[in-house]
Specification:
The protein is α/β, with parallel strands linked by helices. The protein has two domains: 288 residues, Rossmann fold (3-Layer(aba) Sandwich), CATH 3.40.50; 197 residues, N-(1-d-carboxylethyl)-l-norvaline Dehydrogenase, domain 2, CATH 1.10.1040.10. 46% of the residues lie in helices and 12% in strands. A hairpin with a 2-residue loop joins strand 5 and strand 6. Pfam families: Mannitol_dh (PF01232), Mannitol_dh_C (PF08125).
């Protein structure tokens, strides 16, 4: 390793400087000018760059001159920083895989173009309407689907949806862009693209299909029917822990690898992608780079969402209440680690058998991944947008466990910890910033109702009919009372 290269001698990352980068950095060995963009990706964040874009980068090393390059798209004002970084670096960026064995750096070249929608909305529609575009992939977060949790219906009254229905040529939301491009393809006799959701939603393809079709029907019933009949929406399961990029990561890339990169990404070594083989306009031969293509993603999805994502929430709330900053710190606390173990054991009976996976081994691997100190994953990332995550990651298991008559102790504990977290103060009285689209409503209820969970449980768009189960309500009440009276540590000890 080149330990501590000074910032002044670091090489600014771009296409022209690739050959000057140090030998300990892998660089694209294929000709990026020979790649056409068959994929448009909406929501280029750390996860996409450490996951789908890496798989395609590996693919291009085996298949140069490919038609499966990525045109990245940012829809939100928040995406300006990504636009500025990627456009100044020829869309190149550094991915560093971090483990106790060491850090490996690789420059990824799979994204060859980046469009920032607020700069030019038509350019984004054009990119998806072109015949070369065969797949549109999405990482728009759980909350980006305008899906009402309690009912499973489309949130047609959301201001973004209403705006896009009234301004079909100048959309701001994901469905407005997708329907504008699909409508143009339909009118020009071009076959549609596949829509591939890569977000942590159970049945993410089904949800994308239902929501997009509902939106399109409202805009134009013929278009809605055409989409329903012709567009493919495969389900997929994605997995790789990818913390948000920090100033310390940027500095580490400069000092260890001599690269001046405005927006690198760090990730754990583990990587998994399971995709339903259902595409209407062709796809890359992803199997050649380790993607699992299957006719049924459901068991893999349930395993990952119910074990990994649910555990993340429990770690996030308890770690925050105790006063930790990082996931690995929380996992070094034997009480939290034991609670995670027990939550996973409680969820396991709700899972289907997963082809080729040993569940005990998978759970053991999860604990090791969470405890990886090199990743420096921050607890607020795990707690982000919890109102969209709780129903998807925990409530399904809870419903199944109630039906089976099996244990709900730790799932109820996770819900109670969220309610206590929403109070906005940890056990030492320090403020907790709550980052959630429903934050105003939820924090108000949490503060006024304190140790009584009923008012939060009555938020039907999150909990639906679950509060009809007295067993569930009693379990949450008992644990929430304990969290307020004894604190997080004592409550974990009590269990």
């Amino acid at each position: 390793m080149n330990s501590n290269i000074s910032t002044n001698s670091a090489i600014k990352l771009n296409q022209a400087s690739l050959s000057r980068l140090p030998n300990n950095v892998q660089i694209p060995k294929y000709d990026r000018t020979q790649i056409t963009n068959g994929i448009v990706h909406i929501g280029v964040g750390g996860f996409h760059r450490a996951h789908q874009a890496l798989y395609l980068d590996n693919y291009f090393h085996q298949n140069p001159g490919s038609e499966w390059g990525i045109c990245g798209v940012g829809l939100l004002e928040f995406d300006k920083r990504m636009r500025d970084a990627l456009q100044s670096q020829d869309c190149l960026y550094t991915l560093v895989e971090r483990s106790l064995e060491g850090d490996n750096a690789k420059v990824i070249g799979a994204i060859t173009k980046y469009l920032f929608a607020p700069d030019n909305r038509q350019a984004v529609i054009d990119a998806m309407a072109k015949p070369e575009c065969k797949i549109v992939t999405l990482t728009i977060t759980e909350g980006g689907y305008y899906y009402i949790e309690g009912s499973g219906e489309f949130d047609a009254n959301h201001p973004t949806i209403q705006y896009d229905l009234q301004h079909p040529d100048e959309p701001i939301g994901v469905y407005g862009f997708l329907t504008a491009a699909l409508d143009r393809r339909r009118q020009q006799g071009i076959a549609p693209f596949t829509v591939l959701s890569c977000d942590n939603l159970q049945g993410n393809g089904h949800i994308a299909q239902k929501m997009l079709t509902a939106f399109a029907q409202m805009r134009d019933s013929d278009l809605g029917n055409w989409i329903a009949e012709n567009v493919a929406f495969p389900n997929c399961m994605v997995d790789r822990i990818t913390p948000a990029t920090t100033p310390a990561d940027i500095k580490m890339v400069t000092e260890q690898f001599g690269i001046d990169d405005a927006f690198p990404v760090v990730a754990e070594p583990f990587l998994q992608w399971v995709v339903e083989d259902n595409f209407c306009a062709g796809r890359p031969n992803w199997e050649s780079v380790g993607v699992q293509m299957t006719n049924d993603v459901h068991p893999y999805e349930m395993m990952k969402i119910r074990l990994l994502n649910a555990s993340h929430l429990l770690i996030g709330y308890f770690g925050t209440l105790v006063g930790y900053t990082y996931v690995h710190e929380a996992m070094a606390d034997p009480l939290i680690r034991q609670a995670v173990d027990r939550l996973m054991d409680e969820v396991t009976p709700t899972l289907q058998p997963v082809p080729g996976i040993d569940l005990d081994n998978y759970k053991k691997t999860l604990i090791e991944r969470f405890a990886n100190p090199k990743i420096r994953d921050q607890l607020p990332r795990l707690c982000l947008n919890s109102s969209a995550k709780i129903p998807k990651f925990i409530l399904g298991s809870l419903r199944d466990a109630l039906q089976q008559g099996s244990s709900i102790d730790y799932m109820s504990l996770a819900i109670a910890a969220w309610f206590r977290y929403l109070n906005g103060k940890d056990d030492r009285g320090n403020s907790i910033p709550i980052d959630d689209p429903m934050a105003d409503t939820l924090t108000q209820i949490a503060i006024s109702s304190g140790s009584d969970p009923q008012p939060l449980l009555s938020v039907s768009e999150i909990f639906g009919d679950l509060p009809q189960s007295s067993r569930f309500v009693e379990a949450v009440s008992d644990r929430l009372r304990s969290l307020y009276e004894l604190g997080a540590k004592e409550t974990l000890t009590r269990f």
